[in-house]
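We were asked to recover a plausible sequence for a given structure. The inputs and outputs are reproduced exactly as logged, with field labels preserved.

PROBLEM: sequence recovery
POSITIONS: 400
GIVEN STRUCTURE:
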């Protein structure tokens, strides 16, 4: 057997040692880190809110065909006309045709006012035409025929806008004249209404009622107790009711909770309620009433709010979150927190070293802490690599 020279044996041993070292280094990490990221948390808890508002039922006492002039969910002024009553269906159809033609005239005038072709985007115009055409085709394919008139008008409007960008506007004046003539014919053939329905208060008009308008009364909020909510039943409105007006002044959210939960509140507290509504994801509220049940085990908190829009006006109940406090800062695992020389802080990786930096805790849970964000050297900063696990750590320790 051929003998291996001492030099070759040494080289083999060194190579094996290097490979073993690399393998161990890849499998064993002396420290584990997590990135400090900006985070917002709160100490809120979930409720099922029931909305109480000043709601006035709108009634029609005259026979005939009802035609709404106020769109559902829109604001109406006091003494504003909500709807007209006509003697026949023909007048209501003509009014709908008038509204359609007026919309076409407005869209065409908007297109004719485009005079800065250089600043316009032809690609975007082509995309809008294709998008409107596809929407029209899909509605037809799925049988959504009620939406076809609106989609057809949207397609025509986008086609006209593209024509305007290309300078093809010679037919617009003729279209506008034709539409104005059509509008005049409709108006001349329209009969006078036999009656008008006016608003007795300002607010948001809704054509749909839910039967709780006269059951939930804002006049005596002390009656909104746990027992009351447990027995809450709606009251069917009579056939003369055609809608309601929701006041845009102070309104209320009531929520049942345990007595212990209610002890976290006192009348006058300013809080925030999170909702699932797109138009009002956060509502500033104050605690208006705290009503305890007869047996003393439950309570109802009544929150007051002054924000209002059409979506809020139509909401009666839904999941919400009551937030006492909100905390923002850098989120790090709680197990990364250490105490060095009576100073609370964390170790962060700084190049090839670990560095101890003090932290100011804003909020703490069992799993994580939120620390004050800083831009200064020597303090915890955004995206720092915080050491979560490591042995024999000290400030300035070299890591490989």
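RECOVERED SEQUENCE:
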């Amino acid at each position: 057997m051929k003998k291996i020279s001492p030099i070759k044996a040494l080289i083999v041993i060194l190579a094996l040692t290097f490979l073993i070292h690399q393998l161990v280094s890849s499998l064993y990490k002396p420290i584990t880190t997590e990135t400090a990221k900006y985070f917002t948390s709160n100490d809120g808890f979930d409720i099922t809110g029931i909305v109480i508002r000043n709601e006035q039922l709108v009634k029609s006492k005259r026979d005939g065909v009802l035609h709404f002039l106020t769109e559902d969910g829109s604001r109406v002024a006091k003494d504003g006309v909500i709807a007209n009553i006509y003697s026949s269906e023909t007048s209501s159809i003509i009014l709908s045709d008038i509204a359609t033609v007026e919309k076409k005239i407005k869209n065409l005038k908007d297109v004719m006012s485009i005079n800065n072709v250089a600043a316009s985007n032809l690609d975007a115009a082509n995309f809008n035409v294709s998008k409107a055409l596809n929407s029209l085709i899909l509605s037809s394919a799925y049988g959504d025929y009620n939406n076809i008139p609106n989609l057809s008008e949207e397609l025509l409007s986008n086609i006209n806008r593209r024509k305007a960008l290309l300078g093809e506007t010679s037919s617009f004046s003729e279209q506008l004249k034709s539409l104005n003539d059509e509008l005049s014919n409709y108006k001349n053939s329209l009969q006078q209404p036999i009656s008008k329905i006016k608003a007795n208060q300002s607010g948001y008009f809704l054509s749909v009622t839910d039967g709780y308008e006269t059951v939930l009364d804002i006049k005596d909020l002390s009656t909104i107790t746990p027992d009351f909510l447990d027995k809450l039943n709606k009251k069917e409105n009579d056939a003369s009711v055609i809608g309601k007006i929701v006041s845009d002044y102070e309104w209320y959210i009531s929520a049942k909770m345990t007595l212990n939960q209610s002890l976290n509140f006192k009348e006058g507290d300013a809080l925030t309620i999170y909702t699932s509504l797109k138009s009002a994801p956060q509502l500033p509220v104050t605690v208006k009433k705290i009503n305890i049940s007869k047996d003393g085990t439950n309570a109802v908190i009544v929150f007051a709010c002054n924000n209002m829009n059409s979506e809020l006006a139509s909401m009666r109940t839904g999941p919400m979150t009551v937030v006492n406090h909100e905390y923002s800062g850098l989120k790090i695992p709680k197990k990364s927190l250490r105490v060095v020389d009576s100073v609370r802080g964390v170790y962060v990786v700084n190049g090839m070293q670990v560095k101890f930096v003090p932290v100011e805790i804003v909020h703490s849970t069992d799993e994580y802490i939120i620390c004050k964000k800083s831009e200064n050297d020597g303090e915890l900063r955004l995206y720092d690599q915080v050491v979560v696990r490591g042995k024999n750590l000290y400030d300035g320790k070299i890591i490989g």
